[in-house]
Amino acid sequence: MELSIFAHYWPMLLKGFGMTVLCWILGTGFGMALGLIIALIQRYSIAPVRWLVQVYVEIIRGTPFLVQLFLLYYGGPMVGIRLDPLPAGIVGLTIYGSPYFAEIFRSAFRAVPTGQIEAARAIGMSEPTIVQRILLPVGLVSALPALVNFSIILTKETVILSIITVPELLYQTQRMSTETFRYLEANLVLALFFWVFVEIISRIGRRFERRITHYLIERP
Amino acid sequence: MFSSKIFLESFEPLMWAARYTLLVSGLGIAVGLVIGALICMASMSKSGFLRGFAAVWVSYLRGVPMLVQLLVVYYLLPVIGIDVPAIVAAVGTTAIVASAYISEIWRGAINALPKGQAEAAVAIGMAPGDVWRRVVLPQAVSLSLPALINELILLVKASSLVSVVGIMEITRASQAQAGSTFRPLEVYLAAACVYLAINLCLAALGRYLEHRMAV
Amino acid sequence: MVQASSVEVRNVDKFYGPFQALKNVSLSIPAGKVTCLIGPSGSGKSTLLRCMNFLEEYDRGEIRIDGKLIGYDAPGRKMSARNLRQMRRSIGMVFQQFNLWPHMTAQENVAEGLVRVRGMSKPEAMARAATELGKVGLADKLGNYPSRLSGGQQQRVAIARAVAMEPKLMLFDEPTSALDPELVGEVLNVMKALAAAGMTMVVVTHEMGFAAHVADQVAFLEKGELVAVDSPAGIFHAPKDERIWNFLRTYNERNSF
What we know:
The structure holds three protein chains of three kinds. By secondary structure, chain A is mainly α. Chain A contains eight helices and no strands.
């Protein structure tokens, strides 16, 4: 074991980690937004549009993220979509995550009791207001655990961006190991690092959930 | 311009390469089922050590990206003196990662069974081993089937990552094809189609099994 | 005294696929009076109630509130969503499952409609909500979330939420059926007060005591048919139809020791 390489390479690794976090946050944020739009389309739109969206969902869920990335990054330029690695990675994560987020929102919306929507209709609320004031807040809370869970899965997917040369953590680790020939140490430490990182964000996620759902806890 | 000729021609080598995709994911889930069962038993055992081991196993494998795990295994094996072809490292990693998820699937299925059933079996004097063999396991296995099919679909997709260590599965083959034809769009679209076809078949199988169980 | 609506139901049919839930139902609901709808479960009484604010779409016939057709501009031509909302503003509804919004406090639940539908300012709506909650005896529960309230308290919040919109007609869909027996009284008392204030009320209920003592008229439905409309005394003491008699006998057997 030769761990002294980290003493020399840590600034590069830190930059890689920053890039990982950036990709993760943007990919998760945009993916969630796109997923929400998809879920709302699936709930409110006319049948042909819903079918089109469903086809998109099936295609994205049925293919590996890596192949989607290759299509976007290498195939994209042939249809005029020229993206640098980083934007391609973020767009890729957004597309990849969107159907999963959509599914989470969709089932959360279904879990909102019909009666709560009817109560809003009965006092004369308009549909957009019902979405904004009842469906979204009630649905989002019940979606929260699944959202947190899938966001954590996305953290792990960010390493795949190294294959299209996004300079995130795995990419920097590989650079370090090819320069030092310390492949095992580098990857082992990276694995441990991810393990701890994922544990930490899971814990933060759970605490966040508890804070948001405090009013649902019965205490008569 | 989109060349449908290249698109269609890509299918042959990719479908050929699909053997490796199916080999890695199929063997991965088969071995994963066995290890997963052991981990599941460990997680439900009375021994604190075994439970702790299972918890660490699951937490590590679910916390670390599969690509990183693959690299660790790939570089670790030669260091500890095990000289095996890359395909073994690939299947091994896939199986080990799968085992973590599978053990959770089985634990969930067992916990979902009404407790009264096992108690009823005990009450009529069945031995604990028989209770498991005759009452708990048959039901848990069929309860968990849809989730296991789903896991297999995930593995088919995850197996694209073993292209990184040089296994000529669909993704690697499409990279090679894209390199030689300079038509990445057509080739990767074809690759996506092959994956989609495999996964749609598996999903249909899953729905069929779920439907049969529900009756 | 409140401003009160009358409701005129004429020849209403309602289908769920091939199943006919309402069969040619006609019923007059006079302004300022309490009408109870009773009958066995599945008789269509809730469906009829829900047709009155068009949460349930009736297929034939007409329902008029103060002479104005609800749900349709003309037979077969559905009303615009905006006009329907306009009509619903003056029809309050209280549900069996309360249906409070779980992410809002009691006060916010009542204020929400005032802000979003009536366009009141937030502080004004909150003050109004506090007053309405005071009237149902919940002045000390303004800041409580629904999960921290008993069933009876939740239902009283739901009534306050409906009343705050200043409806001219109140629909109650089995308002006490989801409550523990000891909580039924507090909700019925609030309803009695509303009745005394001259509100037009249509109440689907299994509380025969309430129907007998508070209602001005009682309608009995079975299998989608309106069997009889009569005074409470007429229905409970001199039922003219065997079906009513059977229903009441079963009810008494279940509720006696």
